[in-house]
Design brief:
Shape: elongated
Structural class: mainly alpha
Number of strands: 0
Strand content: under 5%
Radius of gyration: 14 Å
Number of helices: 6
Number of domains: 1
Oligomer: single chain
Length: 113
């Protein structure tokens, strides 16, 4: 996996208890981490298209699809931004904020392996 930050940078705190979901299995943790990263990347991609087309439905669908990831991450800021964008995907500031938060979480997930 590609890491986006230098080792001297701080990482976004993760609120997920991997042991609760993996029983301490490092291979399963890696699998879950990769799935979460894929889900966050998909949400970013769908939002980029949905915001241009003002397609709230597409964003709702991807949020429903990755609901387990969002719940497992328990990131309050991420969840709040998602809710705002589910109401209206055309909020440019919130879309940029979601992109930043997702990137930060992805980097932290990559670092957690």
């Amino acid at each position: 996996m590609r890491t986006l930050k230098n080792s001297t940078d701080s990482y976004r705190p993760l609120f997920i208890d991997f042991d609760a979901f993996t029983d301490g299995d490092p291979d399963f943790k890696k699998e879950i981490t990769e799935l979460m990263i894929d889900n966050l990347l998909e949400m970013q991609q769908v939002l980029a298209v949905a915001s241009k087309q003002k397609d709230d439905v597409a964003f709702h669908k991807v949020c429903h699809k990755i609901k387990a990831t969002l719940e497992m991450l328990e990131d309050k800021e991420l969840l709040e931004i998602v809710e705002i964008l589910k109401a209206d995907v055309s909020h440019a500031e919130q879309a940029a904020q979601l992109d930043r938060v997702c990137r930060d979480i992805i980097v932290s997930l990559q670092h957690s392996n």
